[in-house]
Amino acid sequence: MAEEYSVVVRDLVKRFGDFAAVDRVSFSARKGEIFGFLGPNGAGKSTTIRMLCGLLHPTSGTAMVAGIDVAREPERVRQNIGYMSQRFSLYNDLTVEENIRFFGGMYQVPDALLQQRMAWAVRMAGLEGREHAMTSTLAAGWKQRLALGCAVLHQPPILFLDEPTSGVDPISRRQFWELIHEMAAAGVTVFVTTHYMDEAEYCNRLVLIYRGKIVASGSPAELKRTAMRGELLLVECSPLGPALELLENHALVQDAAVFGSALHLVVESAAAAIPQLRAELVAHNIAVARIEPIPASLEDVFVALTARPAAEVMP
Fold it and tell me: Band of the pLDDT at 3, cuts 50, 70, 90?
């Protein structure tokens, strides 16, 4: 059974002095799975991934990557993974070809395979004919795909991507995720950290982390179906500020947040709450254009989970 998993983490802790950046997290990622690590900046995502890559020594707990203990054999772990950070891990003062050659040497790609893998990386990045261009002249989307190609030159079974699409335009992000799905289909385990809720939808499974602790895990569909306590309402009304102030303290409302030009409310029963909430808003001279139940998004789930008291968070 353990052979099905590429990454197995149990009670992993990383402390910096008295501060627990990662606090007893446990999870497993299967082979060929796109595993998402979701949370806001400062939640502990990057600290966790650096431990899993053998770049940071855990304070306690265990982490097995490709069957190797990251605390005992970090160098061996690094030989069996690909890693790409949000800064793309490239050298701007080298050309496209020079970057690929450099990483080929770093990953000890055999000479007999290097030309083939270089051609693949250039083709995958869409940079045919630009092999001699300085990397500094490339747009962020091109750098992103080039960095991905460099990270997997040695064809690792596990790929770690640490917020790889930060600062990249939406079209490039979509193209990047198409490449990720191709790799997962070929059997590569792809471990992605992100704070983009829409990107989390592309993952097979997710772990939601907040303040160093895991608050939920499951597929995107499972989280949206089970993590919310109650039903979600969309409220389009004006003025929005007074409406939020009124409803966030209402006895029927478990949680209230602004989403664009509307409000999202969590209530126990939509059918019971809608008439009362509408009447309350109208009584306070707030015009209601629409109030109706809607399916929860991952952003709704995350907001609801992180708003819960610490005692209710998963251990």
Answer: low
Q: Which residues form the domain of 260? A: 229-295
60/136 same-domain check: yes
The span from the CA of 238 to the CA of 281, in Å, is 10
Task: State how far the Cα of 212 lies from the Cα of 115, in Å rounded to an integer.
Answer: 43
Q: With CA atoms as reference, report the closest residue to 138 among 102, 168, 112.
A: 168
Antiparallel, parallel or unpaired: β 34-38 and 189-194: parallel
Same-domain pairing of 251 and 135: no
Our count of domains for the chain comes to: 2
Residue that has been written with the tokens 């990047």 in this structure: 176
Q: Which residues pair with 124 in a beta bridge?
A: none
DSSP type of residue 311: G
pTM strictly above 0.85: no
> Are residue 282 and residue 166 in the same domain, yes or no?
no
Q: Which residue from 223, 247, 222, 225 is spatially nearest to 234, judged by alpha carbons?
A: 247
pLDDT at 114 over 70: yes
Residue 86 neighbours by CB distance under 10 Å: 18
CATH code assigned at 237: 3.30.70
